[in-house]
Amino acid sequence: MAKVVKKAVTKTAKKAAKKVAKKEVKKVAKKVAKTPVKKVTKKATATKKVTTAKKVVAKKSVAKKPALPKALLTTWLKGRDGWNDLDWWQLLEYLRAEGHSFYADVQEGREAVSAFLKEKSTSSVKLPKRLLNAWLKGRTSWNHDDWLGLLKELEEAGHKKLVHSSKSLLAIGHYLESNVG
Fold this sequence. Notes:
Strand content: under 5%
Number of helices: 10
Structural class: mainly alpha
Number of domains: 3
Radius of gyration: 27 Å
Number of strands: 0
Distance between the termini: 39 Å
Oligomer: single chain
Shape: elongated
Largest sheet: none
């Protein structure tokens, strides 16, 4: 269902951009037609100006993407161990309300928001890398009991916050998976 919604939003945005571009081209064409030019060159000049106007409108419609609202996203992320689909859609509504519709409505913007949130949610956790590397030494795989043993070891070593936070557990799992073997 989410893909259908994304496609519908993208199509709607593209249609709206095309309508705006067509209107602007028509306005410029009318202005060009009203300008006094000799009859012989009037048609050629008008055609050139309309072509130029189309190029200008095309450049305007491919506007620079706005800066990612990092402070707003960081604030939203604080105190969360993760998020679900409902949180995601509420965040998109919040972005629209705050004037960041590019990041709420355009696929490229949504992907940028998602990447930023994923990076922030795992990178802000300070891991006890020495302990994790020592635990990983000689291991190529592990089972659930090994995982629980590691968590108990971390808790005994004074890393209780890491063990009781799902965000931290994800970061530990990611670290182990990327440094195994």
